[in-house]
Amino acid sequence: MEKFIYVLCSVLALHVWGAGISPAYAEESGAQILPQDEAYVGMDMRFLPAEDASAHPSWTTKTWRARPVLFTVQTVDQDIYHAYCLEITVPSDRNAQIRMGSWDEFMGENAFKSDHDVQQKVAWIVHHSYPARELVDVAQQAGISQLSADQAINATQAAIWHLTDGVSPDFMDFAIHNRDEDTQAILALYHYLLSEKNTGLDEHVLGAEVSIDAPQEMSFAGGLLGPITFHSAVSTVKVDVPEGYSLVADSGEAIDPEHVAIDRPLYVDIRDTDTAGEVTLTAYVESSAYHGSLVTPVISPSAHGQTLVLVQQLVQKSSQDVALRWRSAGDMCRDAQGNVVRDTQTGQIVGKESPLCIVEPGEAEPHQPLPADVSDNSAEDIQVTAQHMPDVELAKTGAEIYLLGSVAGVMVAIGIGSAYREKRRYRVLDKLIE
């Protein structure tokens, strides 16, 4: 049974025309290189040295023509490995004894020996390309619609040799002798594998895990439950959503639970219910963990043949659950007008029992006078009366009535006295005239 185990080969991995590839047996481990599988053969390609290759002792200064292949290695336990090459300049020796070791024990002289960044980037390439990943997934990551095995092998091997030996594929020469679709596919994957997305991998890497951020506060029926955010080292996770519910974006757009993007706030749609409830979401992620080690055919203490860098691919699964509950729509706090009350700090809906549930009184209804109190134009009458009425208070008590009566009596007496005096004066004047 073939396991997901892949290998980097530090020898010249070339398919030479007219020359068969004979099995090589490693006495110490019992491993052997199987006859070449024609499904794992790439296309002939020329490789050019870097313009400043002479300034880099670990880079080759020659032009090479090679047909990359993917080797198949079988261990004594019948485990199957696949191999890409690390060195474009070293001939193979299929009969030497094999020694197991770490990356630091690499016997070659190219950049893989001393540059840890190169080691990590090569590991990332093998981990993210074919056959560690399906062709359709590799094509999607590289931004192309289709990708064949031979195209992937050429692009992957070219990217590795660019890092270890400083060579670059001659795409102009390749385009003359091959189809345009081959050139475009290989070019796209080659640039993707060497892009800034290649952040490198260490010799020992664990598989990715998944975690979930969800609100601690209970929500209410009739809306969107969340936000819920999934986190992982991979770009998407799978989420099990119970029947009758769905994941949506804040806009209400439905989300495919088989491919849920990480680090994006999402919600459970509970707009069609007004009763309390609970839902449990389970997020899954499948990723590869691997352990890398060198398998070196030792010819002599100072010479080596094909060195294999084993990258053991193990599919790991990680999962995380989150339970979300919500209250009924009737538990929401509403003001006198029936509007939902929210916390001014968080924007969360407030429950009836919350001290923040302050119901503001509504506007008082206008006074409706009884028919007997007003005439048909009562409003007009009241307005006029209010404009011309003197600002005098009326008497309200008996004492005030007696006081006013006394004052009136005095005023009357004064008036009578004044009239009597005037009458006497007129009489005196009449006598003087006579």
Number of helices: 8
Low-confidence segments, given as residue ranges, are 1-7, 10-28, 362-399, 428-434
Q: Which structural class is indicated by helix and strand composition?
A: alpha+beta
Which term fits the overall shape?
elongated
Strand proportion: 15-25%
What is the N-to-C order of secondary-structure elements (H for helix, E for strand)? EEEEEEEHHHHEHHEEEEEEEEEEEEHH
Q: Could you estimate the helical fraction of the residues in percent?
A: 25-40%
Number of strands: 20
**Biggest sheet features:** 13 strands, mixed
Mean pLDDT, rounded to whole units?
77
From the alpha-carbon coordinates, what is the Rg to the nearest angstrom? Answer: 47 Å
The end-to-end distance, rounded to whole angstroms, is 163 Å
Pfam families: TED (PF08341)
Keywords: Membrane, Transmembrane, Transmembrane helix
Organism: Arcanobacterium buesumense
Protein name: Cys-Gln thioester bond-forming surface protein
What can you tell me about this protein's structure?
It holds the Pfam family TED. Residues 83-198 form the Thioester domain. InterPro entries: Thioester_dom (IPR013552), TQXA_dom (IPR023849). It comes from Arcanobacterium buesumense. This is Cys-Gln thioester bond-forming surface protein. By secondary structure, the chain is of the alpha+beta class. Among the domains are: 32-205 and 292-311, no CATH class; 210-285 and 317-327, Immunoglobulin-like (Sandwich), CATH 2.60.40.2410. It has helices spanning 111-114, 116-128, 135-142, 149-165, 171-177, 180-193, 378-388, 398-433, and strands at residues 5-9, 32-33, 45-48, 64-66, 71-74, 80-85, 97-101, 168-169, 204-205, 210-213, 219-220, 224-232, 236-240, 247-248, 260-261, 266-269, 277-300, 303-304, 308-312, 314-327. The strands form 3 sheets. Strands 1, 2, 5, 6, 7, 9, 11, 13, 15, 17, 18, 19 and 20 form a 13-stranded mixed β-sheet that branches. Strands 10-12-16-14 form a 4-stranded antiparallel β-sheet, with no helix packed on it. Strand 5 and strand 6 (80-85) form a beta hairpin. Helix 3 (135-142) crosses helix 6 and helix 4 (149-165) packs across helix 6. Residues 1-7, 10-28, 362-399 and 428-434 have low confidence and may be disordered.
